[in-house]
Amino acid sequence: MIDFIGLAIVLLLAVAFGYLVKRAWGSKNKILKWVGVIGAGLLTLVFAAAFIGALVGTMRLNQNFNASNPVSNVTIQATPEQLAFGAKYAKFCAGCHSGNQQLPLSGNNFGAEIPIPFGTLYAPNLTPAGNIKDWTDGEVIRAIREGVHKSGRALIIMPSNEFHALSDEDVQGLVAYLRSQPAVEPNTPPTSMNVIGALLLGATGGLTRQPAITQPAPKPAVAVNAEYGKYVSEILVCRACHGEKLTGGAGFDGSPAPNLTEVIPQWTEEQFLTAFRTGALPGGAMLDNAKMPYKEFSEFATDTDLKALYLYLHGLTPSK
Ligand code: HEC
Ligand code: HEC
Fold it and tell me: How far, in whole angstroms, is CA 8 from its chain's centroid?
């Protein structure tokens, strides 16, 4: 994934404007001289900076993580319970990996909505007609939890930070579910970033590689206790909006997500379950599902999940 032609064009533009600066400097006409030097000088700087940014982005896009994030050697034999978990959890992938936000995960053109020609980026087809038919179970697990492609490069935008906490049991159920979907043709085209994509990534980040998971990641026993509740809070990504310490943050649209360490200790378990099952808050207001996707959480979570989650949040020490 190296856009040699794009990089060469940007470099040539920098050199060409640099040459114009030199020419303008030699001009006898004072106005022409300074307009030329300043105008062409600025453009030289812009294209030189763009070249460096694109070069850094290209290097980051092609960095290989096979050594730091080894692939586990596992062959999944999922139980019906694991498969059922996978089928439920896969709905959280559908927002990106499906054109109609529904299962099966037949892929979706991620670039279609973005009005910048940065290359080709699909959230790939994850049915047995997609690339993963040629990936080992370990490679798919690594992609989900660690954000690394089969080739060893970092994945783009794929939010593996949110899936990093999935236990071995649950991520295996998820992969078993992916492989149990109907094979939906066609496969999605491979990712490729041109010089603009490389520049954007070089400047902003957007690569989501996570630390390697090399130790067993057991799933806590499913029970109404704080340990399991913490796990539920991790795989339902409460922290993505309510902040790393759940002390408040912002939703995906920027609206404030309240401090859960202050709110939940004042709620009863019943109030908490009602909020998730119906959206109705203790004060009488309603949760806005577009900001806080309680319907999706409610569909996923059993009463045991919610009660454990409540116990965990209720026990947090209130902090600002
Ligand atoms: C925010 C959007 C988004 C969400 C949510 C998301 N993905 Fe992805 N995923 C992507 C994008 C984009 C890529 C392609 C990245 C690339 O090629 O660099 C990707 C790549 C992958 C890959 C690598 C496949 C391949 O052919 O390269 C796997 C496996 C994967 N995702 C699984 C999942 C699973 C399972 C979930 C849900 C638990 C999920 N993703 C949720 C955006 C998303
Ligand atoms: C996509 C971002 C997002 C995620 C993920 C998310 N929340 Fe929220 N949450 C919000 C926002 C934004 C609000 C404020 C909603 C409103 O004003 O309607 C909110 C409100 C709440 C409230 C109501 C608080 C109050 O004082 O009214 C509770 C409780 C809550 N969230 C708990 C959770 C828990 C537990 C999780 C994880 C299972 C979670 N949220 C995941 C964004 C999110």
Answer: 31
Q: What is the pLDDT of residue 238?
A: 97
| C-alpha span between 314 and 76 (Å, rounded) | 36
Atom of ligand 1 nearest to the CA of 156: 18
Cβ contact 105:197 at 8 Å:
no
Q: Tokens 């096979």 belong to which residue?
A: 66
Closest residue (by CA) to atom 14 of ligand 1?
123
For residue 209, give the nearest of 254, 166, 265, 148 by alpha carbon: 148
Quote the pLDDT of residue 130.
98
Phi/psi class of residue 134: alpha, beta or left (left: φ > 0; alpha: ψ in -120 to 50)? Answer: alpha
Give how far the C-alpha of residue 19 lies from the chain's centroid of Cα atoms, to the nearest Å.
43
Tens digit of pLDDT for each residue in 132-191? 999 999 999 999 999 999 999 999 999 999 999 999 999 999 999 999 999 999 999 999
Percent of the chain, pLDDT > 70? 100
The most distant pair of C-alpha atoms in the chain lies apart, rounded to whole Å, by 84
Cα 139 to chain centroid distance, Å, stands at 17
- Give the whole-angstrom CA distance, residue 204 versus residue 36: 32
Which amino acid residue places its CA nearest to atom 22 of ligand 2?
258
Q: What is the pLDDT of residues 230-243, one digit of tens each?
A: 999 999 999 999 99
Which residues does ligand 1 sit against, CB inside 6 Å? 92-93, 95-97, 110, 121, 123-124, 126, 130-132, 140, 143-144, 149, 155-159, 163, 174, 191
Contact 294, 212 (CB under 8 A): no
Give the integer Cα–Cα distance in Å for 118 and 196.
5
Mutate to test the pocket of ligand 2, among 162, 228, 242, 313 (most ligand atoms within 8 A of CB): 242
Q: Tell me which ligand sits closest to the C-alpha of residue 293.
A: 2
- pLDDT over 80 at 203, yes or no: no
- Judge if the beta carbon of residue 263 lies within 6 A of ligand 2: yes
